[in-house]
Structure formats: C-alpha cells, structure tokens
Write a structure and sequence with these properties.
The chain is of the alpha+beta class. The chain has one domain. The chain has 3 helices and 3 strands, in the order H-E-E-H-H-E. Strand 1 and strand 2 form a beta hairpin.
Length: 87
C-alpha cells in the first residue's frame, strides 16, 4: 500500500533465493530483516505475493558446474523505491 511504501521507501531488505540446479526455477524465497525494521510491520501476504511473482517470473540457466550442485543460492540487498512502480 502507499502507507507501507512511505514507511519502507529508501530502505534496504535482503532477498534470498534457492534455485533448482536442474531446471533453473526458483524453489524458495526468503526475506531477511531485523524485527525492529519497518519491514516487520508489512503483512505476510505482501511477502507471499512477492515470493510467488519471483517464482513465476525469474529463472536462471545453470552452467555445467551449477547443474552438478544440489541447488544454487542467490541473494542481494534490494532498495525499496519511494514511488510506486506505475508512476
């Protein structure tokens, strides 16, 4: 919501993904933040929506070395935009 975005805009959250090494599809998504961060007050349903969108729209092409692994881990720190995506 606009109120949530106002609270977390400009702040950074850690996002992690576990990727299936044989298919390249995202199989698990995690969000890491401290309980005192403003991200802690965002409803779980919002994180679930982001998780499902990442699982649907993101995939990788594993290299030969990547395919020999049980899974591939990827993570990054994402800054939340202060403005909605449609503006």
């Amino acid at each position: 919501s606009a109120e949530e975005r106002k609270r977390v805009g400009g702040k950074k959250i850690d996002v992690g993904m576990i990727i299936d090494s044989s298919t390249g599809k995202v199989i698990e998504v995690s969000f890491n933040f401290f309980y005192t961060d403003p991200f802690a007050t965002i409803p779980v349903s919002t994180y679930r929506k982001i998780e499902l969108e990442l699982k649907e729209k993101v995939w990788v092409t594993p290299t030969a070395d990547g395919k020999r692994m049980k899974f591939i881990m990827n993570s990054w720190r994402q800054e939340v935009s202060r403005l909605p995506a449609d503006k």
